Amino acid sequence: MKKTCSIFVIALILYLSVINIRPVYAGTLGETYNENSNNKIVQNSSTENIQYISLNTQETDEVLEVFKHNNQQLYITGEDIDLMAKLVSAESIGEPYEGKVAVASVVLNRTLDPSFPNTIKGVIFQKNAFSCVKDGQINAKTNQDCYNAVYDAIKGYDPTNQALFFYNPSTATCNWMKQTPKFNQTTIGHHTFFKIKS
What was the pLDDT predicted at 102? Predict the structure, then answer.
């Protein structure tokens, strides 16, 4: 009886310690984690110094992700991820998946640029930064694709060539977006992603 009880307690502890554990990603862009074998698989797709680490927690105010680029680190909470997914949903309606990742990448790129706030919330709610914040569309329902796009951006996939801005040339009402000198332009779907000349 005592032996059976001990085995049950040990099995319960092991089960509870394993449930809800997500794989930890810690490596450069191009490395993936194989959940089935618990081995890191290295793919030589990029040499950029970008790292992604996922931490095991479900609290929205605790750090869930760490985005590293060169010598900078950005600690990302569940609230940040939810906010980014809402922004991606509102700003990339009708855009391809790559366009959704691109919108999330712009947010991350801005947090690492000294010209912008250094938090995701600060970037998203910066005055006049995103039209969906101004008109309230950021509160619309989001979907799993938007969350997946956010996680892909956090993992280091940036199809924008480190863009800090984007707009839809056919619907933009902001003259600054239309007239400002741009470089590193990339078009994805209906959006043009770019940096500005200093």
Answer: 97
For residue 5, give the H/E element and its range: helix 2-18
Give the H or E element holding residue 18.
helix 2-18
Q: What is the pLDDT of residue 173?
A: 74
| Residues of the domain holding 105 | 2-196
Alpha helices in 19-143 (DSSP H): 78-91, 97-112, 120-124, 131-134
Q: Of the ranges 38-42, 49-53, 159-163, which one carries the lowest mean pLDDT score?
A: 38-42
Domains of the chain: total: 1
Q: Residue range 141-161: average pLDDT? A: 94
Q: Which structure tokens are listed for 51? A: 């790292």
Contact (CB, 8 A) for 64 and 22: no
With a threshold of 0.70, does the pTM exceed it? no
- The predicted-structure confidence for 5-15, as pLDDT tens digits, reads as follows 556 555 545 44
Which contiguous run of DSSP H or E holds residue 39? Answer: strand 39-42
Is the Cβ–Cβ distance between 131 and 115 less than 8 Å?
Answer: no
CATH number at residue 61: 1.10.10.2520
CA dihedral of 107, 142, 150, 177, whole degrees rounded to 10:
-30
CB 83 within 8 A of CB 91: no
Measured CA to CA, the distance from residue 99 to residue 80 in angstroms comes to 19
